[in-house]
Each structure stands twice: as structure tokens, then as C-alpha cells.
């Protein structure tokens, strides 16, 4: 089973086992906020049609390069080093001056080495415990090959989340929405509160079904009032990976009333 290829704010690996039981039967699966794409990559059974969407152009370029140009992408790291100096040089590069493969390689390098997987305000990910950044340059191709194969039949889009939903809205479609968490930094995009209100309104009007995962916050509960809200407590490591876990509240929100769901 392929795993996410880089850390991402609000990554879903710990949520997956709680999330999948709420997925109804569907033919088309759409992630409108791809991020690390854990929910798609770790599915036990692919859907007939799968769509991976994100508004972040660097992220979309990376997924497209891993899918279509893996060999050339891996070659970009042949003479690379894991070092603070190279990390700082990469942050200073202007993405618009790079080719798509160079841009994807830069984004991948920074995400793998940045503290906490942040997309903005990145710093070199050496933590107080002495645990260094997790990037093995000798195993990049091995780590990416499974994702390369998994993305072979996936449609990769770069659309605003609303446009993505409207484009693929069918009765047989399941939309999984993992938007930036409310009052949480590090995603690299602005996501004001009215976006959650617009999301709730759209969920009431479309033909397909929607599952949302988000942090449990009174404002969020108010925005999605009237939907099926499933609260969870999940432990996430804090303090830069020094082994301490802290419980955080999460919500799984469903756009329909039927509580019978099965991924398979």
C-alpha cells in the first residue's frame, strides 16, 4: 500500500481507520483538497474514477511529475545533499524560474525537510531531540514507485475546491473534503471562515455525497449545524517529534443522514 510521500499539515494517516467506515458506496471518488493525499493513497480498493485536486500549484506539479516523469524527477536528486545550507538555498529559489520537474523537486525537498511539514514559514527540520530530517536520497525512487503506479489512473486537477465539486458532481460521486483547519497555520493558503459556510451550503445542494474532516471547534460545529457530526479524539505528536503525544479533537461530517456506509 503506498503512503504519503511527504509530511503535510493536518495529515490524515492517523485518521484513516476512523474515516473509511463513513465512506458510502460510490463509483467516483474526488479529493478537493489533496494535501498529502493519504485518504486516496491508502484506500484498500480504488474507485472506478478517482480525482485528486488542490489549488497549490507546486503540489499539483509534484503529483503530475511523480505520475508522468518519475525517472527524470529522481535524477534531480543525484547530486543533492541533506543540509541546512541547501535547504536555505532552495527556499530562496523562485519557482516561476524553474521547469516543472525542477519545481516539483524543490517542493518535495522542502516538504521532506521542513519542520512540521509546513508549507509556509518553513525552517530546517532538525529537532531538539537530535532526530534529523527524514529524507533518504538513496531511496527516493523506491519510496515513490508505489505512488507512481497508484496515480496512473488518477485524474489530477488544479481547481478551486468549489469548481472541482461542481465539475464532478454526480449522484454516484463521493467528495472527501479535508480543508485547512480553522485557526490553524502552515497550509500556505488563506481559508477564511466564510469558506466553511460556503462549503456547508454547497453540501446541501449537490447530487453527490460529501465527507468532511476538520478540527473540532465550536465555530466549525455552528457552520455545519444540521449535518451528521462524528467527534473523535486523536493523538498527534507535538514538540517536533520528541515522542510526546497530545489529544486533539476532530470532526467527521457527513452530508447525508444514512449511517450505513461501506468503503468496499
TrEMBL record:
This is site-specific DNA-methyltransferase (adenine-specific). It comes from the Bacteria. S-adenosyl-L-methionine binds at residues 8, 12, 54, 178. Transmembrane segments: none annotated. Belongs to the N(4)/N(6)-methyltransferase family. One of its GO terms (molecular function) is site-specific DNA-methyltransferase (adenine-specific) activity. PANTHER family: DNA ADENINE METHYLASE, SITE-SPECIFIC DNA-METHYLTRANSFERASE (ADENINE-SPECIFIC). It holds the Pfam family MethyltransfD12. Its EC number is 2.1.1.72. It catalyses: a 2'-deoxyadenosine in DNA + S-adenosyl-L-methionine = an N(6)-methyl-2'-deoxyadenosine in DNA + S-adenosyl-L-homocysteine + H(+). One of its GO terms (biological process) is DNA restriction-modification system. It comes from Stenotrophomonas lactitubi. Keywords: Methyltransferase, S-adenosyl-L-methionine, Transferase.
Amino acid at each position: 500500500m503506498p503512503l504519503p510521500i511527504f509530511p503535510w499539515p493536518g495529515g490524515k494517516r492517523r485518521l484513516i481507520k476512523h474515516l473509511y467506515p463513513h465512506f458510502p458506496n460510490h463509483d467516483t471518488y474526488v479529493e478537493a483538497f489533496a494535501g498529502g493525499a493519504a485518504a486516496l493513497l491508502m484506500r484498500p480498493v480504488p474507485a472506478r474514477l478517482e480525482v485528486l485536486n488542490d489549488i497549490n500549484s507546486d503540489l499539483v506539479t509534484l503529483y503530475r511529475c511523480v505520475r508522468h516523469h518519475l525517472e527524470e524527477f529522481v535524477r534531480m536528486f543525484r547530486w543533492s545533499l541533506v543540509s541546512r545550507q541547501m535547504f536555505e538555498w532552495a527556499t530562496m529559489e523562485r519557482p516561476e524560474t524553474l521547469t516543472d520537474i525542477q519545481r516539483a523537486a524543490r517542493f518535495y525537498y522542502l516538504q521532506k525537510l521542513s519542520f512540521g511539514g509546513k508549507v509556509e514559514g518553513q525552517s530546517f527540520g532538525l529537532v531538539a531531540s537530535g532526530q534529523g530530517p527524514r529524507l533518504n536520497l538513496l531511496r527516493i525512487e523506491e519510496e515513490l514507485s508505489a505512488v507512481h503506479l497508484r496515480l496512473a489512473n488518477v485524474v489530477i486537477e488544479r481547481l478551486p475546491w468549489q469548481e472541482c465539486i461542481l465539475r464532478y458532481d454526480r449522484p454516484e460521486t463521493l467528495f472527501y473534503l479535508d480543508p485547512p483547519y480553522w485557526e490553524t497555520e502552515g497550509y500556505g493558503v488563506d481559508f477564511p471562515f466564510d469558506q466553511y459556510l460556503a462549503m456547508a451550503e454547497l453540501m446541501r445542494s449537490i447530487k453527490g455525497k460529501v465527507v468532511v474532516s476538520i478540527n473540532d471547534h465550536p465555530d466549525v460545529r455552528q457552520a455545519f449545524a444540521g449535518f451528521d457530526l462524528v467527534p473523535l479524539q486523536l493523538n498527534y505528536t507535538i514538540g517536533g517529534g520528541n515522542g510526546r503525544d497530545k489529544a486533539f479533537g476532530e470532526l467527521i461530517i457527513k452530508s447525508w443522514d444514512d449511517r450505513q456506509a461501506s468503503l468496499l
